[in-house]
Write a structure and sequence with these properties.
Chain lengths: ~575, ~150
């Protein structure tokens, strides 16, 4: 180990620090008290006034940082990072029916987005058809309604699935939506080896955040592992899972919890796949991740850097993966929806810009920037375009993408990266002692931790310890101005009627015998514990609907109901 | 039934009881859980329905638990649809003396619509908890005093 700082240098620095602390600091404090008694990150990590090499005294550069594109990847997974290829600008989009969403996707492609990302409505997210009583009033509201392969075909009208990659935020029904996508690609003449994109397919975090869970934890994990196993063997460019901290964070977690719980979810999935007999190097390169970029700038950058370093260690040292690609943590980032407020909503553009900058300085592979009108509704075209343009300004005007990991070597950033890593390891150890994340989730452990953190944050806001411009400081009575913000308008009732009609038409026109047989075969495969993916794909091609397929699976696996505690 | 409850309120002093409800398929429960805890800390008695409730289930729970207020948390854009249905069902069961309040991701322009439907208060993100507490207290006192809001 080569130390970055000599003993002599450290002694001198420490002496200067002590001198500052004993002489300069009290002098200044007596004249000018500080704004707060204590400064902490958003996650509550206490901060010193400033950092020096003495805070990194045993810092081993090669062990902690190295070079971009090599273990431990703290500085980035690619050797050239954004100098060769910018991050993918992937805007999470979808509303109404497939027609509306197809138009929105094409608008975003024209505006320069470089990857697609589908937002589904709540009925699709929990796997019910638009004519199910549970779907009433919710069809097409928070995302696009896609209950059949026919709908998926319309979503991608005039879009060549061999030329784009698509993220789908879908969890319990992931096998169904992936099958829709594969079937449409096939129909477009795109071969399996060219189908690229991502299914979120991360069931464990659903019990902590987002909560579009359908099956009980064990079955949910089994189904997700089916998707991964099938994908790595059949559609090699697909990311069959996006292990997500985003929703955990949005549910109120701290940055440390987000990082730790996401990695613990990842560890659980790797174990499950190895237990199925898969070779770690066969699937590890296809695992992808998804994080939140919150407003506490440096903490977020440090979190992203720590995440890469920790995952590389987990894959190489815990699981013995041999391929460097298996050690990569590739991740998508979305700016923090929960940091946006309806008061003076245009300020959200500024928040999103700062968060996006943190994501880029943290080395993300793809990025979604939230629209400023998101506290109200799914974004208008105007707001969505500003959000995309924000990324483009960061990419093309600011120069921040021209040097790799430009904040490395900052005493503060390196100290904070180490600190977040250490705190996250402590959580992971605790979860390991519980028997892994599946067990921890069943015990409700991460759920409670996150709820505590959410409540703590709210209290800090109430007490004025956390200041939010326009909310608990510089508040304005601006109702009339806010009222004039043009929001997305579409006829939801009309969409719901159209979607009900289409799903009924699909049901009435299909080959009954083939459809019935496909669903029966799916049921038997699920009962036998086989990988359900080939059977789901077959049922989709026989025009079985999302609700019908999920109905069969719910019969076999059961349904999860969250205990109503608070 | 409505009458019986009203009499009870006059004769006994008890904590203000709030039903915190999640209606529909929306899984965003951070706000609901934070508000449930904050109200409990502020001295309310709180019943949380859990996720994915139907309007019918919420009305039944409100009557059975004899609550003073129903608070609905919505982050999925169906607030107008749900408010209409909820107010209608409460009326159908003669329980429309229980005031309904809502909170969540709701456009400012919809606040008036919700109030015209009969929702008593609408709280947007960023509303201070003490403001919510004050308004709920007032609603509950009003109802106990008059038997109606």
């Amino acid at each position: 180990m080569v130390k970055l700082y000599s003993k002599e240098a450290l002694e001198e620095i420490l002496k200067a620090y002590k001198d500052w602390e004993e002489n300069l600091l009290p002098q200044w404090l007596s004249r000018m008290p500080e704004r707060q008694e204590e400064f902490t990150t958003l996650s509550g990590i206490p901060l010193k006034h400033f950092y020096t090499p003495a805070d990194l005294k045993d810092f081993d550069y090669m062990e902690k940082l190295g070079v971009p594109g090599a273990y431990p990847f703290t500085r980035g997974i690619h050797a050239t990072m954004y100098r060769a290829r910018l991050w993918t600008m992937r805007m999470f989009s979808g509303y109404g029916g497939p027609e509306e969403t197809n138009e929105r996707l094409k608008m975003l492609i024209r505006a320069g987005e470089t990857g697609l990302s589908l937002a589904f409505d709540n009925p699709t997210l929990v796997g019910v058809d638009p004519d199910d009583p549970l779907a009433e009033g919710a069809v097409g509201v928070v995302g696009v309604s896609v209950p059949t392969v026919v709908d998926m075909e319309v979503v991608f009208r005039d879009i060549n699935l061999g030329e784009v990659t698509t993220n789908m935020t879908i969890n319990a029904p992931a096998p169904v939506l992936l099958s829709f996508y594969v079937a449409v690609a096939e129909k477009q003449g795109v071969s399996y080896d060219r189908i690229g994109g991502t299914t979120q397919n991360d069931p464990l975090k659903e019990f902590i955040g987002q909560k579009t869970h359908v099956f009980p934890p064990e079955a949910a994990v089994k189904v997700a592992m089916d998707v991964i196993e099938w994908s790595v063997k059949n559609i090699p460019k697909w990311n069959p899972i996006s292990i997500s901290g985003y929703h955990i964070r949005e549910a109120g977690a701290t940055a440390v919890q987000e990082l730790a719980f996401t990695l613990a979810d990842g560890i659980e999935y790797v174990r499950q796949l190895i237990a199925r007999g898969l070779d770690v190097d066969e699937f590890a390169p296809r695992l992808s991740f998804f994080f939140d970029a919150h407003i506490n700038f440096f903490e977020e950058i440090a979190k992203f850097r720590a995440a890469r370093r920790m995952w590389a260690k987990i894959m190489r040292d815990w699981f013995g993966a041999k391929k460097p690609r298996s050690w990569w943590m590739r991740f998508h980032v979305q700016t923090a929806g929960c940091s946006l407020y309806p008061q003076q909503p245009w300020l959200n553009i500024v928040r999103t810009t700062i968060e996006a900058l943190a994501a880029v300085l943290g080395g993300c592979q793809s990025l979604h920037t939230n629209a400023f009108d998101e506290p109200f509704r799914v974004p208008s075209e105007f707001a969505a375009k500003i959000a995309l343009r924000t990324q483009q300004i960061i990419a093309y005007e600011t120069g921040v993408a021209d040097v790799i990991d430009p904040l490395a070597g900052s005493y503060f950033i390196e100290w904070l990266t180490d600190e977040i890593e250490e705190r996250a390891w402590r959580y992971i150890e605790r979860i390991e002692r519980m028997g892994g994340m599946l067990e921890a989730v069943k015990k409700g452990y991460p759920q409670r931790e996150v709820e505590e953190a959410a409540y703590r944050f709210q209290r800090e806001v109430e007490e004025g310890k956390r200041l939010i411009v326009g909310v608990n400081i510089f508040r304005e009575e601006d109702i009339e101005e806010v009222r004039r913000v043009p929001l997305l308008e579409f006829n939801q009732e009309e969409v719901e009627r159209r979607q009900k009609e289409r799903v009924r038409k699909v049901r009435s026109m299909r080959d009954e015998v083939r459809w019935r047989r496909a669903l029966d075969e799916l049921r038997r495969a699920a009962e036998r514990g086989e990988n359900i993916m080939p059977y789901v794909l077959n049922a989709v091609k026989a025009y079985a609907t999302l609700g019908e397929i999920m109905g069969v699976l719910k019969d076999v696996y059961g349904t999860y109901v969250e205990p109503p505690y608070y | 039934m409505s009458m019986e409850r009203t009499l009870n309120h006059h004769t006994t002093r008890r904590k203000v009881k709030v039903l915190v409800a999640k209606i529909g398929l929306d899984g965003h429960d951070r706000g609901a859980k934070v508000i449930a805890r904050a109200l409990r800390d502020a001295g309310f008695e709180v019943v949380y329905t859990g996720l994915r409730q139907t309007v019918e289930q919420v009305v039944a729970a409100a009557i059975q638990e004899d609550v003073d207020i129903i608070g609905v948390n919505q982050h999925e854009g169906s607030h107008i649809y749900i408010a209409r249905k909820l107010v209608e069902k409460l009326r159908e069961y003669g329980a429309d003396d229980i005031p309904v309040v809502m909170g969540g991701s709701i456009p400012v322009v919809d606040v008036d619509v919700l109030k015209s439907i009969g929702v008593k208060e609408v709280f947007l993100p960023g509303t201070p908890i003490r403001e919510i507490v004050d308004k709920l207290m007032k609603l509950a006192e009003e109802r106990r005093r008059t038997g109606r809001v």
